Amino acid sequence: MLPSWSKELSVHNDAIDEQHKHLFDIAGRAYALINKKATKEEIVTILKELLNYTQEHFRDEEDYMESICYPRLEQHREKHREIIRDMTNSVMQIRNVDDLKEKLAVIAKKWLLEHIIREDMQIEKFRRSVCQITSSMPKKSSNEAEYEEKKIKYTCQCKGKIHLVPSTLHNKIQKEKALFNCKVCKAIIQFLEM
After folding, report:
1. Higher-confidence position of 109 and 19
2. Where is the Hemerythrin-like domain (predicted)?
3. Taking phi first (over 0 means left), then psi (-120 to 50 degrees means alpha), and beta for anything else, what does residue 69 get?
4. Phi, psi for residue 163 in degrees, rounded to 5
5. Residue of 74, 88, 138, 140 with fewest CB within 10 Å of its CB?
6. What pLDDT was estimated at residue 76?
7. Cα 31–34–36 angle (5° rounding)?
8. Mean pLDDT in residue range 85-112
């Protein structure tokens, strides 16, 4: 039996929580195919959905970890790569429908859900500790907070993607002609003039 998503698994980021819920849903549907007569096409379809959505989710989750300065980002990113690599390798080694069902169960339960329950909860633990520290700090003046929060919009070749760049980094890009690439499309980000 697969666990189901609950509030205890929240990372207190609405977008990431919604993605986790969706992953639990896909994993549940995938796991349900184990005990029913399913065609190879049905299984391959759900595997593709699971793999594609997992890749999208991992990119968004890594952006979120970066935004909160998560100290174990690189280790977590490597776990994501490992999961995608293992998923891809497992799918390529499938010989028949029963083998396909078995691999699907492992992917759904072991790699994804256990990853969310174990690893992603470490992100939430870190976020809570940072929130406790910052809530006990003296409040900043509105000028300090405004300066600190100012982000400049940049674009890349990803459709509809906006990069929010801190003003200090924006100044470096403008003054020093520094170049930064989008992690997804690898194109150099460009200042979005209003």
Report:
1. 19
2. 14-123
3. left
4. -100, 125
5. 138
6. 93
7. 120
8. 76
**Encoding tokens for residue 107?**
């992917």
- Provide the token pair at 24: 């639990």
Q: Considering only 62-66, 94-98, 155-159, which range has the smallest mean pLDDT?
A: 94-98
- Reading the block at residue 193, the tokens are 């003039």
For 120, residues 6+ apart whose C-beta sits below 8 A from its C-beta are 9, 11, 16, 20, 61
Judge contact between 99 and 71, C-beta under 8 A.
Answer: no
pLDDT on residue 147: 44
**pLDDT for 110:** 72
Please provide the DSSP assignment of 122-171 as one string.
HHHHHHHHHHHHHHTSPPPPHHHHHHHH-EEEEE-SSTT-EEEEEHHHHH
Per-residue pLDDT band for 58 (boundaries 50, 70, 90) equals very high
Alpha-carbon distance of 39 to 97, in angstroms, equals: 7
Asked if 162 and 155 touch (Cβ cutoff 8 Å), the reply is yes
Under 8 Å between Cβ of 123 and 76: yes
